[in-house]
Amino acid sequence: MRILFKKDILVAAVTRAMSAVSTNNTIKAIEGIRITARKDGVCLFDSYDLEKGFHSEVLAESVEEEGAFIFNGQKMMQFVRVLPGETLTIEVEENGLAKISGGESVFTLNTLPGEMFPSTPELSGDWEFRVQGEELRDSIQKTMYAVAVNDPRPALNGILFRFDEGHMVLAATDSYRLAVCDKEFVNGNGERHSIVVPGKTVTELNRLLGDVREEVTIRSTRKHVLFTWKNTTFFSRLIDAEYMDYEKFMPKNIQTKVYVRTEELLRAVERASLVTESKVVGQEKSFVRLTVKENILDVYAVSMQETAHDEIELQDMEGQELKIGFGSKFLLDALRACDTEFIRIELVSALISAVIYPDDTFEDEATKEKRMKRFENRGVVSETNRHLVVPLHMRES
């Protein structure tokens, strides 16, 4: 096999294929990327770690000799990144020894025959939903922070994808926070489907969608989900567990509503977190205290040797004054997931979860018009985001 690639194209192809390469397995084939060269100049890049898989078609400069071989993914990525020159050559001899060269530099490594690559599931999909890549990535980024890690309840280690009457809803929770992003699309189908996608899969998908502006087709079978765009397919096993009914955790009987600039509160909590993080190991969990009073939001944190204090003027306030404490990281994650100038915080009491909503009540008309134009260009009818944060018990010092 002998192939010539533009360096930037080969680097991008290998980097994307690493999304499904195993890094801690004794099976050599799943630590690799299979490259299949065809005479028409198209090369297939495949990786599969037995949980998730990647497939892409890449156009080479030329294919002088066909073949299919498995290259160690980590070594391949390191080599192609540092080789000089605008064009790189991959040449594999009959004994499986590969030479990867650029300019006057050459790396050699052993490969495995392409037929040793593990069989991937036959995936076609029982149903499909189409969404712009930018909107899918946006939904993922607004929810993935709340995915649990190694929770004994399998479903919480993934993100719920729900499709219903043109809506795509993503939800994630680790029992301490909950994030829900609901988008309605102009051309979304009306079929009702619900799947739970592993958090690790979603993390890799978010990276792969970094510069994707094309339409992404989501397909699913009973056990697998596929995301397809252009000449790329990324697939994964599903978590075979029912997701919790998160709606029952949404607070009722709201007593206080607070409207505040997102950036002002975010920066104040970041400053307060410098104090909460300095707590001595072994002490009780520290918190950031928010006090709502007379159109002022007081942000306060204390440790054994430091304090942090900010006062933020509210845009508006409805209801009762109160104090409530949060873990700084949980509150920061929720605030960073809000991409609007203002947010609305709905509160019941110091012991019941707060819910943060992006809010356009105080936005100027130009900002609202810009958002609606973006929605129109991407086929979005409406978007609703909710970020629930569980409070901490406060012991005043």
List keywords for this structure.
single chain, DNA Polymerase III, Chain A, domain 2, 397 residues, nine-stranded antiparallel β-sheet, alpha+beta, 7 helices, 3 domains
Topology, pairings included?
Layout: E1 2-6, H1 7-17, E2 32-37, E3 42-48, E4 52-59, E5 62-65, E6 67-72, H2 73-82, E7 87-92, E8 97-102, E9 105-110, E10 112-113, E11 127-132, H3 133-141, E12 158-164, E13 167-173, E14 177-185, E15 193-198, H4 199-208, E16 215-220, E17 224-229, E18 232-237, E19 256-261, H5 262-276, E20 288-293, E21 296-302, E22 307-313, E23 316-319, E24 322-326, H6 328-336, E25 342-347, E26 354-359, H7 365-377, E27 380-389
Account of the protein in words:
The chain is α+β, with helices and mostly antiparallel strands and 397 residues long. It has 3 domains: 2-116, DNA Polymerase III, Chain A, domain 2; 127-247, DNA Polymerase III, subunit A, domain 2 (DNA Polymerase III, Chain A, domain 2), CATH 3.10.150.10; 250-389, DNA Polymerase III, Chain A, domain 2 (Roll). The chain has 7 helices and 27 strands. The strands form 4 sheets. It has a 9-stranded antiparallel sheet with strand order 10-6-2-3-4-18-17-16-11. A hairpin with a 3-residue loop joins strand 3 (42-48) and strand 4. 39% of the residues are buried. Residues 280-284 have low confidence and may be disordered.
